[in-house]
Amino acid sequence: MQKGYATLVVSGGNTPKPLFKKLSNLKLEWEKVIVTLTDERWTDTKSKDSNENTVRENLLQNEAKNAKFIGLKTDHESAFEAQKAVSQKISTIPKPFDLIILGMGEDAHTASLFPDANELKNALYDDISVKAINPPEAPFERMTLSLKTLLNTKSIVLLMEGEQKYNIYNEVIQKELDEKRPIGFILKQQKTPVEVYHT
């Protein structure tokens, strides 16, 4: 924490919950930690489906309750209407991030970079910080950090659970880069180190 603060970017879902609970009990200078999300479902932040809710209930507790949290959800009815506002929020967080914790779905998506989403190419290739996504096979509109923003970090950790996801991971690293497997754009890049943890 040489620069006086640390930035932690986390994903939601069930996989990181045990890690969040362990982190919440670490005796750190949490008041100097900025926490934000890799992506968010466009639903009420008190909903069980909200990534912000997951982080507040599992990470921002105990020792970590004094961390500064910057959520992605706004009052806009649609994620697409909120892109400019969320981009401005993300611009206030110093870069590069220190650490991003990612997960992976069984369709090889990460953050909310979903295969077959109409907005995927924009999120992967455009010079933008965030992108609204309407996944074809998942509920809720989403807001996701773009690939450019996800890679603007010192380190990435990918968490996986189960044999099926491990098989998908092996398939991704052995095959050519493919928009059908968005996690490959994280795993096959050379800019940012990625550590993979499988349970």
Give the SSE map.
Blueprint: E1 6-10, H1 17-24, E2 33-37, E3 39-41, H2 51-58, E4 68-70, H3 83-91, E5 99-102, H4 120-125, E6 130-133, E7 142-145, H5 147-150, E8 156-160, H6 163-174, H7 184-187, E9 194-198
Parallel strand pairs: 1-2, 1-5, 2-4, 5-8, 8-9
Antiparallel strand pairs: 3-7, 6-7
Give a structural overview.
The chain has a single domain, classed as 3-Layer(aba) Sandwich (Rossmann fold). Strand 6 (130-133) and strand 7 form a beta hairpin. The strands form 2 sheets. It has a 6-stranded parallel beta sheet with strand order 4-2-1-5-8-9, with helices on one face. The chain has a 3-stranded antiparallel beta sheet with strand order 3-7-6. It is 26% helix and 19% strand. It is globular and about 45 Å long. The chain has helices at 17-24, 51-58, 83-91, 120-125, 147-150, 163-174, 184-187, and strands at 6-10, 33-37, 39-41, 68-70, 99-102, 130-133, 142-145, 156-160, 194-198. With 199 residues, it is of the alpha/beta class.
Features:
Rossmann fold, 7 helices, globular, single chain, alpha/beta, 199 residues, six-stranded parallel β-sheet, three-stranded antiparallel β-sheet
